[in-house]
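Researcher: I'm preparing a figure for a lab meeting and need a structural model of a single chain. I don't have an experimental structure, so a prediction will have to do for now. The sequence is pasted below. Please return the structure as tokens so I can convert it later.
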Amino acid sequence: MDRGYTLGLLRKMIGEDKDFRPGQWEAIEAVAIKKQRALVVQRTGWGKSLVYFLATKLLREQGSGPTVLISPLLSLMRNQIEMAGRIGIRAFTINSANKEEWANIEEALGKDECDLMLISPERLNNEHFLKEVLPQISGRIGLFVVDEAHCISDWGHDFRPDYRRIVRIVQMLPKGVPVLGTTATANDRVVKDVQAQLGPELTVHRGPLARESLRLQNIRLSNQSERLAWLAVNLPKFKGSGIIYCLTVADTERVTGWLKQKGFAAEAYHAGDDGNMDRPALERAFLNNEIKILVATVALGMGFDKPDIDFVIHFQRPGSVVAYYQQVGRAGRAVEKSYGVLLSGAEDDEIQNYFIESAFPSTRVFLDILQELEKNEGLSLYEILARVNTSKSMAEKALKILEVDGAVGQTFDKKVLYFRTPNPWVPETDRINRVLDLRRSELAQMQAYVAHPDCLMKFLLEALDDPNPVPCGRCANCLGKGFSASVPHELVIEAENYLKGAQVIIQPRKQWPVGLFPDQKRIIPLELQNSPGRSLCYYGDAGWGKIVQTGKYREGHFPDELVYAASHLILDLWKPEPFPAWVTSIPSTRHPNLVSDFSTRLAKSLGIPFHPVFRRTSEAPEQKTMQNSTMQARNVVGTISIDPQLPSGAVLLVDDIIDSGWTLTMAGYLLKVNGSGPVYPFTLAQATGRNTNG
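Model: Understood. Here is the structure written out token by token.
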């Protein structure tokens, strides 16, 4: 089992003319022959997966047990299983998407017919896996692999609490079981932290991070209209396929809509859409070049491998150099020349600061959750949300951290219930503050990168602590030329009109949140639901968003141009059927004339009457201070009343900004109960979606 034999296996996997890249054989040798613990830090596309596949093959031929591979992404698992099969490695995965295969996989494990088991770190907290699967292999693991090992570290750009469980398993492995960690995004700080957690005997195999095929360029275009215009002008210059990264789900949809309008084969890729997006199908279509462009959030991140990506364009600036390097590193893995273009804009800092501030739950959230669990024997996530004013995502983060820290456990009885354990828990405020400070310094470093006048690749390499950072001679700064930042004015106007004309759909709420009305069914009867509505824009965004913001908080008046825009959307684009017979609006005690004045002018523009049928009975805190659906809905109940003598026909229900949607839902419910026709919600802006990352 020497280098030559292993090279033959490699060639079976990737081609008869291939050879080891510098450092690959040394890493294989370390874990498969010397039985060491090793951390491999190599650039994206270097071939880290080949190391653990070939090591698994060698170890199994020596009589070792199966390899356990911790992998963070299902998409990566699918690709890895296919690649492993090329050299006869029997690879399986147990995850939430293949429950129908679990029995056969467990049988294969029992018969020692599994060479490689791929699991997510979250699976290590799954009751079935811990009781039924792990005991079959725990005493005979041949190799333990942690892919994307930077996730172990607090200082990694993508820290995940579940990775702490991995550290505990590694510490319990018998002496002599090799351990392999792999990553492309670990600077010195992260490497030292991973070493401290996986053991001082961990050897580091580090290679150069420079991408020889990649041409980098930064272009500052402050508004989205200019950036959309730039895309329309420059995307035809790229021969192959590529990725456009956006910071928010909403932006992926907007950019995709514009590109489709301009004739590009583009699709949005993100983790939103309530799980309705078929991401594996999009990945396959992109891999097969059926789609030229994927417009993606960070959901298309670690592990996705398409060797011939021609370009990676960032529509907005990422929050850190390591995140940027990982994303731009998707390009140019098997092509001689590829491009990484960063388009930064005015909204970048606002979005990134939001991400930083919402990275961790507050101490109050942790303590409130623990207090509620101490008072109850077991609570579901939604029962917790009915008692604690925090968002669903923050509650999930807090529960995850509390679980990993041993302060909270979970049981399953038709639904997952969380309970308080006897273990004490102390807030790690200092650690969280240190991490947040790091995130802010990373943001400052990324701001410096955008403004950097010299070699861009060298800047990245220095930030990543590459041992030999030298000028690349290929980036736009080194060459003194690149893509032009100028775009035709008429195209910018067209993009601006596109943004202003984009429809934002308001989906009706279909059920009441948990605990709101304990004595009635949660399902809102179809006949009492609102019809799908529309918003003119996202609050504060390009197009109309800034004008809405200024009108509400600076001028106290919405200008006529918003009336004309709303009228155009309703009459020419939306065209609800049956068409509204009258208009009403949500009243406010803070701004008593703002929405009613706008609604009166809108009704006049539409040629239908305005009837103020609602009254505020009490003033509740602003909806934006309520962090989850139960709190938001409860905040609305009892605050508005309605005139029971309603005009007949369909009604346009107007508000300025929709946050949770519960005010419109409750108002629509009252309208329907009192005999109105179809209720069409309309708002000037949506607050939701602005800072949605995923």
